[in-house]
């Protein structure tokens, strides 16, 4: 779902400084060549037993990158690497989360001859990792390095990976307590600076990498929390402020100490948001151009397989947003109106939705049944401006009244018969 992108452009660029001309994207052929060289470099780290790295989490990260870069499950090297996804008693949050993400990647790519292997070998291990993650959530709602201790203070890097691991576990069909998601959402709201941005921990100043990490986690957890949860509306405000912060502060290759991880965090956040652009900038084109302009040693970025894996995951845009993660821009703009909203705020929201044109029409119909009169008034006003029809409906009356229900049905019929 990409409708959020134009809304974010309108919301964010109004307050953001005018950016420099965005970079042109490298050709797909150039990207494919870089990925082929990176795959060769990553496979060169595999030992005879199938390990791609000594540490479990790093092994899983490299394997995740290889899978997203197109390696097939039938490749014997992949099979040997999958068999090395062993759990351990002292597994870290990163270890457990990344192993879950690998199993989810296998699920998405499962060929017919691999399903038995997935069910009999990988799923039980994934379930153990998921239970470990859920149990390790701290009282504040986040995660620390030590997956065996809930007492250590949480940080936003470990929390990001835990959220990605929970997301993978959910996709694999495992049940995750609602309270786990709700606590996570509250933690990430609390980690967000009032003016946008987030740091490694609450005591740290904001950074691009951690802001992107918190943004992606907000989108993931918000999608799993009940719509009536009070964190929903607070999360929406945080999301807009974080996007504005990223628009103003992100530059490819910065900061030097975490530049590949920062790219990966940005990619996660943008894909989950459904945003092709960051303000007026093509974030993927800029990031891909920067990566391909960097000197590489036999296909490697940086000095480790970790940096190369992050680069590969950015270039492949490895995961797609799932149901509820992207924001419905019409509901996002109008749903947060309430009786305390200023007239200028209402007018700005109405004008922004009108600029979306008739693509916004289907999302307006459910808002005619909102409990908030101001939302109903805004929705019917936009419908009349876009369709040039009165269509009935009285926003001052209950949306459940017989006349309004008939009017909503008429509006649906009008929209369904509009020329495409």
Write the layout of secondary structure elements.
Elements: H1 4-13, H2 28-43, H3 56-68, H4 76-83, H5 93-109, H6 115-136, H7 156-171, H8 178-190, H9 208-222, H10 231-249, H11 259-273, H12 283-293, H13 305-316, H14 329-334, H15 343-355, H16 361-364, H17 373-387, H18 402-416
Helix pairs in contact: 1-10, 2-13, 3-5, 3-13, 5-6, 5-7, 6-7, 7-9, 8-9, 8-10, 9-10, 9-11, 11-13, 15-17
Largest beta-sheet characterization: none
Kindly report how far apart the N and C termini lie: 19 Å
Q: What is the helix tally?
A: 18
Evaluate the radius of gyration.
23 Å
CATH class call of the largest domain: Mainly Alpha
Task: Explain what the structure shows.
This protein has 420 residues and is mainly α. The protein has two domains: 4-327, Glycosyltransferase, CATH 1.50.10.20; 330-416, no CATH class. The chain has helices at residues 4-13, 28-43, 56-68, 76-83, 93-109, 115-136, 156-171, 178-190, 208-222, 231-249, 259-273, 283-293, 305-316, 329-334, 343-355, 361-364, 373-387, 402-416. Helix 3 (56-68) runs parallel beside helix 13, helix 5 (93-109) packs parallel to helix 7 (156-171) and helix 7 (156-171) packs parallel to helix 9. It starts with a helix and ends with a helix.
Give a nutshell description of this structure.
The chain is an all-alpha fold and 420 residues long. It is 57% helix and 0% strand. α8 packs across α10.
Essential attributes:
420 residues; mainly alpha; Glycosyltransferase; 2 domains; 18 helices; 0% strand
